[in-house]
Structure to design on (240 residues):
């Protein structure tokens, strides 16, 4: 926990306001990207925007309240729809720190019970902890699956899958092929992580797009790359 608090201090201390970016992914799907200065350079954090005819679904808030405000404004201006729902994939600041702002705007923010509990400990507003470990529901005609594959980046990390579009949002549980390491592992279970990734690959074998929590997305290569990074980290842990 101390390591994560130091990470937050580095990310938020004296950080100038950084604009968000939105990139089109596929029909009605967009990646929202917000930034914090890490090591003096802007580092990206990915989330999803999904447009339906009756409102917008977000996966994860922006990285900070200011970024979430900008995200909310972008949706209203560019998609001409209200944000109706946000799914938070775990309790770290790059996923959950805009929860309070969204709730004040009347957005329903949901997560697993554990993420809701841990968000409060982190000092963020708590999402509505209604998601079970394996949940399928329909939002305005859009089929959504949320799934806890096991511990990895954190003990509460879930992924979000859209089966009709074959789009998987992995959050920080999945590392981009651009990543050279596992990133923030202050709350990680590195020994369990590999098997958890394999659970995702078995459960969702027909994925076309995988969006990691940070950096570039791809057609699924990031899942295998995450396993490679985990194996390297485990080798170092056991002194190999």
């Amino acid at each position: 926990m101390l390591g994560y608090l130091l990470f937050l201090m580095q990310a938020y201390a004296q950080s100038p306001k950084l604009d968000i970016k939105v990139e089109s992914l596929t029909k009605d799907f967009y990646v929202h990207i917000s930034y914090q200065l890490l090591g003096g350079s802007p580092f990206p954090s990915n989330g999803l925007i999904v447009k339906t005819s009756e409102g917008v679904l977000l996966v994860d808030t922006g990285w900070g309240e200011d970024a979430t405000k900008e995200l909310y404004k972008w949706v209203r201006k560019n998609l001409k729809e209200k944000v109706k729902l946000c799914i938070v994939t775990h309790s770290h600041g790059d996923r959950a720190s805009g929860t309070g702002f969204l709730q004040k705007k009347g957005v329903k923010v949901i997560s697993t019970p554990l993420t809701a509990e841990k968000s409060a400990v982190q000092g963020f507003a708590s999402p509505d902890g209604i998601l079970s470990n394996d949940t399928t529901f329909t939002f305005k005609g859009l089929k959504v699956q949320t799934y806890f594959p096991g511990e990895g980046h954190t003990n509460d990390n879930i992924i979000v899958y859209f089966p009709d579009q074959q789009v998987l949002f992995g959050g920080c549980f999945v590392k981009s092929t651009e990543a050279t390491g596992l990133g923030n592992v202050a709350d990680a279970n590195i020994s369990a992580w590999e098997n958890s990734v394999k659970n995702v690959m078995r459960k969702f074998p027909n994925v076309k797009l995988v969006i990691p929590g940070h950096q570039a997305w791809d057609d699924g290569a990031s899942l295998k790359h995450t396993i490679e990074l985990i194996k390297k980290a485990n080798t170092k842990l056991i002194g190999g």
The helical segments are 2-12, 65-79, 93-96, 99-104, 113-122, 190-203, 221-237.
